[in-house]
Amino acid sequence: MLLKQLENCFLHELGPKKKPVSSETCNLLGGIVPHASYIFSGPSAAHFYELLARAKKTKTIILIGPNHTGRGPPISIYPDGKWLSPLGSIEIDAKLAKEIRKKSDAISLERTAHQYEHSLEVQLPFLQYIMNDFKIVPVCMMFHDIHSCDELAYSIVETVEDLKCDVLVLATSDFSHYVPARQAQVIDRLIIDLIIKLDEERVLKLIERKKATICGYAPIVTLMVIAKELGYTDVKLLNYYTSGAILNDYSKVVGYATLAFMQPPKKSKK
Ligand SMILES: [Zn+2]
Prior knowledge:
Blueprint: H1 2-11, E1 28-33, H2 42-53, E2 60-66, E3 75-77, E4 82-85, E5 88-91, H3 94-102, E6 107-109, H4 124-130, E7 135-141, H5 146-163, E8 167-172, E9 177-179, H6 181-196, H7 200-209, H8 217-230, E10 234-242, H9 244-247, E11 253-262
Parallel strand pairs: 1-8, 2-7, 2-8, 3-6
Antiparallel strand pairs: 1-11, 3-7, 4-5, 9-11, 10-11
Helix pairs in contact: 1-2, 3-5, 5-8, 6-7
């Protein structure tokens, strides 16, 4: 049932319209994926996972999502154990989680922030559909100021450099919430253009000025900072649509954008 649902996301007319084929042909740091549901945002997210199938695979995936529940500390990393999805269990990379935590006192290792949070767990079946034998580091962010994003981003960058490991970093967010489709498209496009330019300060300013209702902009900004530090500056919009395209009602929509962060062509990094 779930496998069929995932397959439908890939074959959907708003999705990549093809099943993922595994290869190792692109260098991917990570991406931005929506988290509404498989029916609403699954076809958009499938564009990223189709690309992931073609990317060099890492052993660990850092998943960063916004805190929708208000529970737990400002930046919470799930410490250890396993997460379960209908497709099986995934181990937490406890060593990496601990190392990231060590880099900043603003980060907590704990479970409460993750208890009723859905934005990360909806990514797990997609990841299991594409990859096997990987661990995760789930991170939940409550605040959206640049300092929180910098604390987490630099802690991740320093850890990755210290341990000399490769990670995939996923930031999850839905874009504009419950506004007319035209308005969502205009604001979301402005923000997407600034994400592509890796201009995180203007992203934060624009969101504040336009009062944009993007739930996961802290995870997005964190990924932008990491990408710049690690040299993955080729950012591409893979897909955008609004819930209007699913419901055929454009009066109040939610925007879904999927982006990939890659190494620029030619410049090979080692
Ligand atoms: Zn959300």
